[in-house]
């Protein structure tokens, strides 16, 4: 409610504190949202390292959104070395859960091949 400002005045700091308490108890959505807050500089200082930490926690619990975000980070080399193998790993995890954005990215990677860490494969591109 504090994060969205629903029924209360929007307060990212209070939201962050509650999300952090829940994340420490293993609550998957809170882990993902904390990752987004750190990634997007929402009410707290931007930190890609902390964003990735929370994304990893959510990924371990099969959160497709966190898997997609990790794929993007590695695919684009955002504050880390560009690593297409890691990008494909996390994209594949999310794609296997039906995440359409990730399936689209994988399709593009297979369509273009070579320079992005996969062998060009039009059949796989069409599949995704």
UniProtKB/TrEMBL annotation:
InterPro entries: Sel1-like (IPR006597), Sel1_AlgK (IPR050767), TPR-like_helical_dom_sf (IPR011990). SMART domains: SEL1 (SM00671). Transmembrane segments: none annotated. This is Beta-lactamase. The lineage of its organism: Bacteria, Pseudomonadati, Pseudomonadota, Betaproteobacteria, Neisseriales.
């Amino acid at each position: 409610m504090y994060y969205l400002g629903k029924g209360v005045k929007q307060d990212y700091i209070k939201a962050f504190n509650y999300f952090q308490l829940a994340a420490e108890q293993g609550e998957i959505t809170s882990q993902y949202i904390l990752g987004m807050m750190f990634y997007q500089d929402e009410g707290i200082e931007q930190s890609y390292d902390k964003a990735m930490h929370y994304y990893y926690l959510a990924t371990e619990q099969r959160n497709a959104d966190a898997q997609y975000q990790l794929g993007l980070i590695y695919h684009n080399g955002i504050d880390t070395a560009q690593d297409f193998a890691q990008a494909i790993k996390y994209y594949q995890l999310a794609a296997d859960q039906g995440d359409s954005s990730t399936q689209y990215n994988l399709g593009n990677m297979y369509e273009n091949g070579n320079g992005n860490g996969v062998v060009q494969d039009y059949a796989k591109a069409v599949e995704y």
